[in-house]
Structures are given as structure tokens and as C-alpha cells.
Amino acid sequence: MKDDSRKTTLDPSTRSIIDKIVQENNLNKGAGITILQQVQASLGYVSPPMIRRISKLTGITASALYSIATFYAQFRLEPIGKHLVQVCHGTACHLAGAEKITETITMETGAAEGHTSPDGKFTVEKVACLGCCSLGPVMTINETTHIRLTPEAARKLAKSKKKGCKCEKSSHADQQPGVTPDE
Ligand code: FES
């Protein structure tokens, strides 16, 4: 997937994908959310240049589209990193120290919370309850769930991913067979 998030213009293939989606929605001013969803489904995210293109074609103001894209958590404004790290900030995990886990992960990966690291390797997000509250703090990296984390354990996991280590086991998979490791 091409990273257009830091560009101010779109490459021709990205532009033609967007144009096709807008045309399929009949240039409809009321289809802002639908168009954004379809663009994200095709391209993985909706960057400011993409929003400007949609705006130009539909007549929906760029600020209205940007408001939609920032209001709904489903939209990403930049491409997702190779590793998607989601730290649970539900009540139980919050009380168990999720804030420290997020702090550690953002420092170790270089990805600000809600963003992708400059090297494109990590995207770090805070998420709501992941459904294993008694095992917090909980974090997922791609499809693997890690439980009862400490900042040190989180740091080690991030480091192993940075190095491309394939030997790390899921702490969740250890205790709950059936969870698929991400590598
Ligand atoms: S609060 Fe974190 S898993 Fe439920």
C-alpha cells in the first residue's frame, strides 16, 4: 500500500480509485461517510489529500469530511503500520496500569498514541475492553493477545517486533489455546 499520508498530492492510481468510488456514488453530497468508508476499504486510510479530492468532486467541504473522519473511530488518517498495537484502556485494564503500558509502547516504538511510527513499523492505539478483564493489563499486537503485562514485558515485546523476531509466543495463547499467533 502506498503511503500518501505525508504527500500533498495524490499519485494517479490513488486518484483514479477515489474518482471511481465517487462516481459510483453519483457524486452524491449526502454520501460523505459512505465514500470515506469505501476509500478507506480500498486504500487502507483517508489522508488529507484524499479528503481534498473527494471534496473537489462531490462539493462536500473538506472541513465537513475531515470532521467525519476525525469523529468516527473507524477512520484512519494515516496508513497502518506493519504491527498494529492496541492497548486496552477499559476500566479494569486502566486500573491495572494500562496508562504505563501505552506510555512504554509509544516510547519504545516511536509511534504517538493514535498514530503510526515514522518508520511505518508500528501503529499504537488505545482501545476499549478486549474481553479478558481479569487478565489485565491487556494488549494485542496484530492478532496476538498479551496479558498481565508489565511495562518491562511490553518493552520487550516491542523490541522483539522491531528486530523482526519470530520466536515470541503469545502469553494469551499460552493460557487460552485457540488464539492464533500473528506470525
Ligand atoms: S478492561 Fe481490558 S480487557 Fe476488559
Automatic annotation (TrEMBL):
It is an enzyme of class 1 (oxidoreductase). The keyword Metal-binding applies. It comes from the Bacteria. This is NADH-quinone oxidoreductase subunit NuoE. Its EC number is 1.6.5.9. Its cofactor is [2Fe-2S] cluster. Binds 1 [2Fe-2S] cluster. [2Fe-2S] cluster binds at residues 88, 93, 129, 133. Residues 173-183 have a biased composition (Polar residues). Residues 161-183 are annotated as: Disordered. It comes from Metallumcola ferriviriculae. Gene3D superfamilies: Glutaredoxin (3.40.30.10), NADH-quinone oxidoreductase subunit E (1.10.10.1590). Belongs to the complex I 24 kDa subunit family. Keywords: 2Fe-2S, Iron, Iron-sulfur, Metal-binding, Oxidoreductase. GO terms for molecular function: 2 iron, 2 sulfur cluster binding; metal ion binding; NADH dehydrogenase (quinone) (non-electrogenic) activity. Transmembrane segments: none annotated. Pfam families: 2Fe-2S_thioredx. PROSITE patterns: COMPLEX1_24K. InterPro entries: NADP_DH_HndA-like (IPR028431), NuoE-like (IPR002023), NuoE_dom (IPR042128), NuoE_N (IPR041921), Thioredoxin-like_sf (IPR036249). The keyword Metal-binding applies.
